[in-house]
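Thread: NAI complex, take 2
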Amino acid sequence: MINLSGKIALVTGSTRGIGKATAQRLAEAGASVVVTGRSEDRAGEVAKEIAQSTGAKTFAVGLDIGSRESIEGAIKRINEEMGNVDILVNNAGVNRDTLFVRMKYEDWDEIIRVNLTGTFLVTQLVVKGMLKKRWGRIINMSSVVAFIGNVGQANYSSAKAGLVGFTKTLAKELAPRNITVNAIAPGFIETDMTENLPEEIKQGFLSQIPMNRFGKAEDVANVVLFLASELSGYITGEVIHVNGGLF
Ligand code: NAI
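Output below.
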């Protein structure tokens, strides 16, 4: 039912986890997908894998959202080689957890710079093409911790809460141009980001999830697909929670 053929989708941080599953879903729906990661070689491998399994056109580019120079260079190449992006999924994100009293300035600064400022920079460059086309979908990856907080994540939860305000403001500014801006707040999803957490922390989370299981990257990717499609055309400024009932 969802047909994204003719659309160009850019997914940041799509070499693994939620980003990779999202790139796969969008390609399955017929979009041409730009796979990005800090390593262009790794992005190339994933782009090839997705192209082979879906038949979609893919393009790989190195894009470090912690670096303004890298972002500017990558978006220029994407525009030249693929054209203007229709669907932007601001997925790339990192955490550097430590208790607030021990949190160094660098721990705070890096997480805000990568997760929040990086998203601002990518979006500002990509939105220009959407404004010309008078069509666009922007989907920002927030987190449940933006809403409930989490011990050790003052930096990360602040960045993810910042993305909610960013989403809601952009939604208002861009709605007249037929560009929707929404966020997804995943709960506990099984990826590299959560894999190495101590078992007792994982069990603590699990006991709070009414569906009694952790989420899968595809659970989030399916919602991105919906938000990227025409089906969600009258939804903007929303946060969709994907957490099995945790919040
Ligand atoms: P992951 O660690 O498996 O993947 C993160 C992706 O971002 C990777 O492709 C990585 O290469 C990329 N990335 C990291 N730093 C980057 C940088 N400076 N420039 C470009 N790419 C960079 O994590 P996961 O779980 O797939 O996370 C995806 C998004 O979902 C992140 O924004 C994360 O904060 C968010 N999220 C994840 C949850 C989870 O339980 N796994 C829960 C809530 C939100």
